[in-house]
């Protein structure tokens, strides 16, 4: 990253640039081996009392003493995608939310408070798209009370790493004592190459509801309650895939929600003893072909950052990162 003008390093950012994407270079103490420099790129979220705070694409907050800055400038948003579908954060946030709906929800301004008996953080967290209609401190208090009344921990779901995402909100959550607990990546791809893979899908059964066999492989509970089934059944056009096995539970399962041009893949699970046999690919291919029949052309999915096996699988299918989302929990 070039910081110089006429060969001189310059700090060309000010507190007025809060909310913009910046690149800075700071001086660091290398422990007796001399001065070293570190670059940080992200959204400038605050500049107060001599401390500059930047939120990286990963969601990590970096706090820099102002006197250690040696260079800095405002930089454009991340480059546009070079392959796969074009999509804004606002579009994907709405699509992913419709694919995993809560049992109960309530508006707080433009925010949506969601609950489903504690089944998954996604269905039991605030979706803060817009203005809550209150100062943030008051809004966070309302959120805490709403979840306390339901015997649930209070979570807020945020996103970073895309134009229009929520780095400023992440910083405010941290300032009010909320802590980032789990992060995952939203990935997107063209749908046709997923459906065109050379997978033998004739044995895969597609249904509109999860049957007992599907639920036996979905390892999120011992006995699913009605709130679990309501979440799983939610979405514009929902399909469940089952690759049968020799026992009571199938070898592999998956879920797909078709919503306009988008097909969202989730709950792709394979029996441990059947892994590395291409069953996850088979299930996703069968679901992708059904979604193509319904007119979808783009695909999305979510994968946690530490799931290396799934990330490698999705890399091979052409999925690339769009943004990251995080769940912040009230302290």
From TrEMBL:
Keywords assigned by UniProt, alphabetized: Transferase
Alphabetical list of Pfam families matching this protein: Rv0428c_C, SH3_Rv0428c
GO terms for MF: acyltransferase activity, transferring groups other than amino-acyl groups
Taxonomy, superkingdom: Bacteria
Domain N-acetyltransferase: 201-331
Alphabetized SUPFAM superfamilies for the sequence: Acyl-CoA N-acyltransferases (Nat)
PROSITE patterns, alphabetized: GNAT (PS51186)
Protein name per UniProt: GNAT family N-acetyltransferase
Annotated organism of origin: Streptomyces globisporus
